[in-house]
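Structural prep section.
Before we set up the soaks we want a predicted structure of the protein with iron/sulfur cluster in place, mainly to decide which crystallisation condition to try first. Input record follows.
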Amino acid sequence: MSERIPFHQQVAIQPEVVERFGDLHPPFDRQAAVPEANRCLYCFDAPCTGACPTHIDVPRFIKKIASGNLAGSARTILDANILGASCARACPVEVLCEGACVMHRFNKQPIQIARLQRFAMDSLHESGSPLPFEPGAETGFSVALIGAGPASLACAAELRRRGVRADLYDARPLPGGLNTYGVAEYKLPLVESLREIEMLSQLGVSFHFNTMIDASKLAELERKYDVVFLGIGLGTIHRLGIAGERLAGVTDALDLIAGYKSGERTTVPPRVIVIGAGNTAIDAAIAAVRLGATDVHIVYRRGPEQMSAFTFEYEHARNEGVKFLWHVQPTRIRGGKEVEGLELIKLVSTVDGPLVPQAGSEFSLETDLVVLSIGQGTHTGFLSEAGSEGGKVQLERGRILIDRATGQTSYPKCFAGGDCTNGGREVVDAVADGRRAGIGIAAWLEGQHVQA
Ligand SMILES: Cc1cc2nc3c(=O)[nH]c(=O)nc-3n(C[C@H](O)[C@H](O)[C@H](O)COP(=O)(O)OP(=O)(O)OC[C@H]3O[C@@H](n4cnc5c(N)ncnc54)[C@H](O)[C@@H]3O)c2cc1C
Ligand code: SF4
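Run finished without errors. Recording the tokens verbatim:
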């Protein structure tokens, strides 16, 4: 049997992509990490740990950095969060661990938790040491995990540590979901996401790529495995429903980002308009700037106070030269075969609240590329298709309903976690969900076995 090529060696990223999407927060070296670790007050009731969805014991891992025990530090991180390297780069720490740091109370800079976490994790990867966990003694139980994004990866790691077989199925050719194909390259390079997953595969997780699970395949998996875990994330970006959306030169934020991350897209034309003002829209607009666009607009139907993007992401985009147009609604994408412009109308508020188009305020922007980023839909439709037991999984507005403590759905043999259950949050939330579900599945299987 031929040996598998490690995931991170299966991709060839163009050097200009690496150059244009350089590290947003350069890493610490030992000289910088140790004094920063020594600033930590090692709070007894650490609010940073409480604010981290995976509850990493932050003071403990930081203390180990200060004392030079880097392997121990990485172990503390991985014990709570198997994607500790990705989260150290991707987490919006301003609203999580670092936002809760007690240093704020003394008007001091919070401890740079994420950079310290990255320092410990990078040291482990660079040392070439194996993952500091062994798979558990085999129980004979098996779980099929649909999707190979952060939720399924975290779930699979917990299952393997408890001796449960974990087989992941993903429609894509490589693992990681949006961790690999969605998070901006200047935060988390695709290669780093894959390197981390390669390490995880030491636990004996098995991967099946290019495998789209539909209703009939789901039924097959339900028969073959003891449990099915759904870590399918969200679906495609919504369409606007206006004329011109099918023209060449209209794309969506997920395609643009996945395209440049995988090296398939290396440039964009000079004028780009992104529609929407969430974090994904910001990432797409910054990507357009870095891919060579000289005139990038974000257009949004509400005002800055209503946008869902974090303030620091908004500031980042402004610093990159992205221009914002508030209270405008696209009405038509203009062009022959290719996009030539976007027609818009201004919106004004009425006495009783809702924004309405202002008569006579129509205007047009010339553009070469329109990027849609107005939220992702769900793709849980296949669950309710006739013939599959998965049809017993209860949904609410397309999201899978779960018991938050265990990840179990209304159909006991099915568990779920991540974006498909929370409607789209952060990588660290998906990891927390996956971990809880892994523990929940192992306990449920054990309970079934005892009853039998
Ligand atoms: C553009 C973008 C940027 C982001 N940036 C950040 C960031 O900077 N920081 C942060 O913390 N979070 C960020 N997020 C959010 C984060 O990426 C997600 O919350 C996280 O990846 C969710 O993990 P998941 O496992 O639930 O789903 P996903 O990562 O979406 O993985 C789901 C996987 O399931 C597969 N799949 C789906 N359906 C099927 C099927 N029927 N059969 C087979 N396979 C299937 C998909 O191919 C995919 O690989 C970003 C999201 C987006 C869209
Ligand atoms: S995983 Fe994210 S939120 Fe948790 S401690 Fe690390 S950087 Fe902070």
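Observations: The two ends are 39 Å apart (CA to CA).
Flagged for discussion at group meeting.
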